[in-house]
Amino acid sequence: MITDKFALEKYVIKKRFPATYIISGDYKEIAFYAVKTIGRNQISIFDRQSLSAALLKIDWKVKKGLTLNTYKFNIVDRAHTPLGKVECERTPVFSTTFTIKDVYDREIGVIQPDQVGYAYKYFNVIIKGKNAAAFYKNAHVGASYIMDLSGDKDKALDRKLAVAIAVILVAIGIPMQKFTSSVDWAKPVIVGDELYKIKRRS
User: Fold this and answer.
1) CA 19 to CA 34: how far, in whole Å?
2) pTM of the complete model beyond 0.70
């Protein structure tokens, strides 16, 4: 049984229904459910044991332009205490930039994509100049996505913020490639002080 659900090294996010997401710990026990409020730009993240009170809430606003859409996500905890913000700018050709901000609206990091054509291979979450996490689409477990924090030994990225960021990346529907080749490998990704590779599995 998972004791501290916000202390895991990997989170697997699966979209089950149009407005529901299941978050588990590296293919194992379910840790959280995320549910979008119908008719509102809001996602609530619940403990699997209780759906009565949300552990986290994500609210966002969208400003649409002719060539650029801007998303602003606010993340709060159970007590409605702000945890941080994510701002995203997207063009019609899916060129996307993300900025992570603290509760005082100061930039503390970015979500940096590796893009091929209109699809992304993976995202690096960089906090204060160091890669804290990698986010990518898994090839073998349906339409699932992985937030990998295994290299963030110093916990530069707050784990509650990491779970919220993973849900945001899935919810806004960014097209991503699956890692499918058993021969090829993705580019090396620096996480913390370690160099590792995300293997593309068949």
Assistant:
1) 8
2) yes
Tokens of 178: 């699956």
Q: d(Cα 63, Cα 65) in Å, to the nearest integer?
A: 7
Judged on CB neighbours under 10 Å (0-12, 13-18, 19+), 183 is: exposed
Ordered domains of the chain (ranges, CATH): 10-199 (2.40.160)
pLDDT tens digits, residue range 94-130?
567 899 999 999 999 999 887 666 667 788 999 988 8
- Which of 12, 91, 36, 175 is CA-nearest to residue 2? 12
Distances (CA, A) of 123 to 35, 80, 131, 148: 23, 28, 10, 10
> Looking up tokens 């588990």, which residue turns up?
24
CA-based nearest residue to 57, from 16, 26, 85: 85
Give residue 159's identity as a one-letter amino acid code. Answer: R
Tokens at 110, concatenated: 């970015």
